[in-house]
Design goal:
globular; about 15% strand; homodimer; two-stranded antiparallel sheet; alpha+beta; 4 helices; Bit1; about 110 residues
Chain lengths: ~110, ~110
């Protein structure tokens, strides 16, 4: 999540849920076995924050370079941010061995 | 969401995302056409809060009585709440005409 947007908790949660649903659907159709491993393991989700859009774009590049699925969330902008604002980036599901080098230094939201 | 649990924004977002993924998967297998309508319409998600678990259980009864799908989220309790705590209840997807009478009086999270 872009922490500097200072979204309300509910708005932030909706953005994260958009990314999660998108990534889960893609994972299930792309690799059902990997999806089931993630699902059976409690569908772990960790919500982290960055300070700027640049940081998020940098994360996307790093994730793609190692084959982690990514999903941008753009807000329709009806309430808290201008239309089309990129509010968050979803990554995964992926094993910790892939994710940790990309996201391990970020703070929790 | 149970507002009285005072979860961090990130923790709350993860709980909401659990409910969203669960409900989206069930909707897609149960009624692909209704799911596509929701998906194409921007996959709208609204995050609301109640004050107590009793209120959430009451919402579940009301939702089920009119055929709205429901999904409980229990937290594994590794960090902010005891293991097995019911943190939130997901409802839908469903048309506004069904949801509004059940959730219309609640505050946004």
């Amino acid at each position: 999540m872009r922490g500097e947007l200072r979204l309300t908790a509910g708005k932030a949660a909706a953005q994260v849920a958009h990314a999660a649903v998108d990534l889960a659907r893609r994972a299930e159709s792309r690799d059902p076995r990997e999806f089931q491993t993630w699902w059976a393991g409690g569908q772990r989700k960790v919500v982290l924050q960055v300070r700027t859009l640049d940081e998020l774009e940098d994360l996307e590049r790093k994730a793609r370079a190692v084959g982690i699925a990514t999903a941008w969330v753009e807000d329709a902008g009806l309430t808290e941010v201008p239309p089309g604002t990129r509010t968050c980036l979803g990554l995964g599901p992926a094993p910790d061995s892939l994710l940790d080098p990309v996201t391990g230094a970020l703070d929790l939201l």
